[in-house]
Amino acid sequence: NEKKKNYGRLVKRLKHKIRSTSLVLQKTDKSEVFHLGTRQHYQKKSNEYMEKTEANQCLGVNDPLPNLIERTNKYLLDLRLAHWLTQKQYELLCVKPSEAKLAHLYYLPKTHKPGTPFRRIVSGLKHPTIIISTYLDQLLRPLFNKIAFKTTTTSGFKVIKQVNEWSTNNLRKETLLCTIDVADLYTMIPQTEGVLVIKKMLDFLELKQIGGLKIEAIIRLSRFVMRNNYFLYEGQYYHQIRGGAMGSLLTLTIANCHMFFFERNIVKQITNAGGLYLRYIDDMFLIIN
């Protein structure tokens, strides 16, 4: 008990010290250590990111949550009345005002990379559009996995296995190994194009509906989710006007679909030349002679 009391006092003193000196003690990205930085440094990095991407519009201190809840439920009701949604789907997707909470932005320092860049995370587990986003993702992600299973991967182990198989008959002195990273993939996809790429995938699979939801309804719901990402950061509210939220499941599927159609000609050239191409979201890996 005495040890617990001393530990509690130590934590309180540490918290007070960090707050009083404008320091930020933050968990790091992809490592087991913590990063100690100044609040000014975090703010500077955030400003640089927002200026570079031009993806967010500052709304000041006016909370957009009440209006967003109202608009979300009205939009769903309009779709129900127009028979785009069944009563069961409508009730499933509706927002309960008492349970809704706006997303918030935070940064994870990448201490494993030179210069310690920051990973941007928008946490919106109770955001008004999260139910729609999750529902759509459950319908769409298995379809993406179906069309892209040859060119996408989910683990380093699978990459090593495929490289090993390819190397058995193809490895030479002049073999080239290349890795490519897409910068700011989630935020750089135009919102309209991101929604249209879902339709492109569904047309590619020649589908008219999924899980009792017509394609037009899927497109309308996807558009609403993409256009209504709001978050709080350092006391200011923001509206994301470009790309999708970093914490949204639907954004991940849209980004994957966008990359699938973007990379098709590249994949064709590499495979025709006997090479190997694999991608995990925004990281690409290829081998070619």
What is the gist of this entry?
It is built from ten helices and twelve strands. It is an alpha+beta fold. α5 (130-148) crosses α9, α5 (130-148) packs parallel to α10 (249-272) and α8 (191-204) packs antiparallel against α9.
How is this structure best described in words?
The chain is an alpha+beta fold and 289 residues long. The chain has one domain (1-288). It has ten helices and twelve strands. It has a five-stranded mixed beta sheet with strand order 3-10-9-4-5, with helices on one face. The chain has a three-stranded antiparallel beta sheet with strand order 6-12-11. A hairpin with a 2-residue loop joins strand 7 and strand 8. It is globular.
What is the CA-based Rg, rounded? 22 Å
Low-confidence stretches: none
The biggest beta sheet reads:
5 strands, mixed
Give the N-to-C terminal Cα separation: 66 Å
Average of the residue pLDDT scores: 89
Helix/strand/pairing category: alpha+beta
Task: Give the neighbour order of strands across the main sheet.
Answer: 3-10-9-4-5
H/E topology pattern: HEEHEHHEEHHEHHEEHEEHEE
Strand content: 15-25%
Number of self-contained structural domains:
1
Write down the overall geometry. globular
Defining key terms:
five-stranded mixed beta sheet; 10 helices; 289 residues; single chain; alpha+beta; three-stranded antiparallel beta sheet
Write the layout of secondary structure elements.
Blueprint (H helix, E strand, L loop, with lengths): L1 H19 L2 E5 L6 E5 H15 L2 E5 L4 H17 L5 H7 L9 E7 L8 E6 L6 H19 L7 H15 L5 E6 L3 H4 L2 H14 L4 E2 L2 E2 H13 L2 E4 L2 E5 L8 H24 L3 E5 L2 E6 L1
Parallel strand pairs: 4-9
Antiparallel strand pairs: 1-2, 3-10, 4-5, 6-12, 7-8, 9-10, 11-12
Helix pairs in contact: 5-9, 5-10, 8-9, 8-10
